[in-house]
């Protein structure tokens, strides 16, 4: 090799190092620009929304949003293109189905709860429910994971509590969201723990915050809660009980909420449980001709409850149900329906849930909930922006771009006869006066009805 040639690998190495160095410097540069943007927009929101937040809490929120964005990027590399090119939620990334539902306030709802969407006993709302798996990665449904149930009530009435969430397509589209998972307690006490934990998660380090040799760290109770959360394997999302985990203020009462399958509900089906999407298939099978139902319940915190027994800002503590029993206040009916079409799945991905979307005397409580007002909004805007998708609030049960026309029956598997029924007589019928029977149908009556029903 000539002298010039011996230097070549060295020069290439230098060049590569320079390029890599520049790329790293550029990446670091754009990262710090992102950080500055996030911090600026958090400060603007805190000021605009007149939120009472300490500087430490503000820093934790900024950090949580930075981590959420990083998680979204890291997860995108894992999820895409195998599960689609689009950016997903950084939590609860995989939907197992978005279903049409009705949310009917009980006629006998106690007076202390008659506020916000519960103001009118017997009132019924159309709703959308997004069932999900909790992980940031899209995983087979059989893998242990938290399971989410996010309910969006359509056409709520009253003063909007977080107008910045917007996204309305029509002035009628004022909605209220109830966001729950199938464990009663969270794996972080408050926003400070959460923000630190997320920094680990953004590096796909799932254990680092809970247990670590150096620096030494052991968060035993939280580790147990995290284990409970991620180890849940289920048969169908329709048979789980879901919890808000965090408290809310309704009128003068502080409550947690939960939805539980109606008594005697049985959704056993024979779907192959090894399929990656068996939970979706299971629900599709159940709802092909059957329906499902949940009781929606509130757990009022007694006025004399201690901060230790029923804390307002420690989400790892389960409020004792003997001291504060859950009270059923509404019913969620899920009618027979088909929900697996492509347009509906896209609609489902583009929905935005936020614990602060609500009306009237309703207020999420505690530092985690305060952070969620900004974090959910920021994450939703980020993924909609990345996907060039419009941020829209649904006003009804119609799915934009679906094959079926937008009628109240869209997507439902409900076969109701048209009215008036056709006048059909079989060949033996003779009116008493001997006149001719003017049947509106030809052929066999049973066949005609079957044919007509198949048309729905
Ligand atoms: C402790 C109570 C919590 C519950 C019950 C809960 C439950 C859920 C559920 C069910 C979803 C999916 C929503 C959907 O289907 O669109 C979700 C999404 C999300 N959660 Fe939570 N979560 C909790 C706490 C938190 C906290 C404390 C944060 C951060 C401060 C957080 C950050 C997020 C984010 C960023 C999303 C994605 C939002 C979007 O892109 O639209 N969660 N959560």
From TrEMBL:
Q: What class of enzyme is it?
A: oxidoreductase
Family matches, as InterPro entries = Catalase_sf
- Domain of life here? Bacteria
Q: What Enzyme Commission number(s) does the record list for this chain?
A: 1.11.1.6
Q: Which UniProt keywords apply?
A: Oxidoreductase, Peroxidase, Signal
Question: What is a GO molecular function of this protein?
Answer: heme binding
| Record CDD domains | y4iL_like (cd08152)
Signal sequence annotation: 1-27
**Entry's SUPFAM superfamilies?**
Heme-dependent catalase-like (SSF56634)
**Name of the featured protein:** Catalase
